[in-house]
Write a structure and sequence with these properties.
The protein is of the alpha+beta class and about 250 residues long. The protein has three domains: about 1-35, no CATH class; about 45-110, no CATH class; about 130-250, Immunoglobulin-like (Sandwich), CATH 2.60.40. The protein contains five helices and 14 strands. The protein has helices at about 45-65, 70-80, 95-110, 190-200, 240; strands at about 1-5, 15, 20-25, 30-35, 80-85, 90, 130-135, 140-145, 155-160, 175-180, 190, 205-215, 225-230, 245-250. Helix 1 packs across helix 3 (about 95-110) and helix 2 packs across helix 3 (about 95-110). The longest helix is centred in the first third of the chain and has 17 residues, at about 45-65. The protein is globular.
């Protein structure tokens, strides 16, 4: 599947040409290759993808239980929020889509779902973060936040990449959801368990990309995604040096 931005000569395409089908969502024009009749997809979903499907089902079922007045309130709330797709074009979502997005965010950070649209879209968050590596503490990657995210309690969804080449400058599709932490957690916050639960081994001598998505843990509203990366040293030659500390300073 590909997202498409049409030039001025073509406003949009709809339908199929050969094996390609064109359609439109609220945010994008999409082109995708049609599956052959009777074909079977053999890909295996990750644990995170399977969890997302379960959460989407839970939240979709919750939408059916709220009142018509609540649904209308979500539709009005959606019209007041302007979003932008990857091409910079603005669009508005539907009340249902925002309801699902915010509640799935809340489920991802183990918070209660909401039935009414939030009163605020404010998310307290840091403006940037840096990462440092040292060898002083055995077998741990520590996330250390400096300062406060403000008065709005915030959780950060943590995404880390698989091992990447040291020369790579940008990462898009290699991120995996590894967990979350609250900005009121005790620090330093150890990340190594989260990474190893997803990737199974430490990628010594490689680069790891990290992104953090701030989530207001009362409303599910997300803030500005933060990005950074770190180059891990080569595999140490003795047990003492093997215990690397990765300190994430915020």
């Amino acid at each position: 599947m590909a997202r498409v931005q049409y030039a001025s000569e073509i406003a949009q395409l709809s339908g199929s040409t050969g094996k390609t089908t064109y359609s439109k969502t609220h945010a994008y024009f999409i082109s995708k290759t049609k599956s052959a009749p009777g074909s079977v997809h053999t890909f295996t979903r990750t644990v995170s993808q399977a969890n997302q499907r379960v959460q989407f089902g839970q939240v979709s079922a919750l939408w059916k239980t709220i009142t018509n007045a609540q649904r209308s309130a979500w539709d009005a709330f959606a019209l007041d929020i302007t979003k932008h797709n990857i091409f910079g074009a603005s669009y508005t979502s539907t009340g249902f889509n925002l309801f699902v997005q915010l509640n799935v965010n809340l489920l991802n950070i183990s918070q209660a779902t909401i039935s009414d649209p939030p009163d605020t879209t404010t998310v307290g968050q840091m403006t940037s973060f840096v990462m440092e590596a040292s060898s002083s503490t055995p077998q741990s990657w520590n996330l250390q936040q400096e300062g406060s995210s403000g008065t709005n309690p915030t959780s950060y969804m943590i995404y880390m990449s698989s091992a990447q080449s040291v020369g790579r400058k940008y990462c898009k599709n290699a991120y995996r959801y590894c967990g979350y932490y609250n900005d009121q957690s005790s620090f330093p916050f150890d990340l190594i368990t989260y990474y190893l639960n997803v990737f199974a081994s430490i990628p010594w001598g490689s680069k790891v990309f990290v992104k953090l998505i701030p989530i207001n843990f009362y409303t599910g509203v997300s803030g500005i995604t933060l990005y950074n990366s770190i180059i891990l040293p080569a595999l140490p030659v003795n047990v003492e040096e093997l215990a690397e500390l990765f300190t994430f300073n915020f």
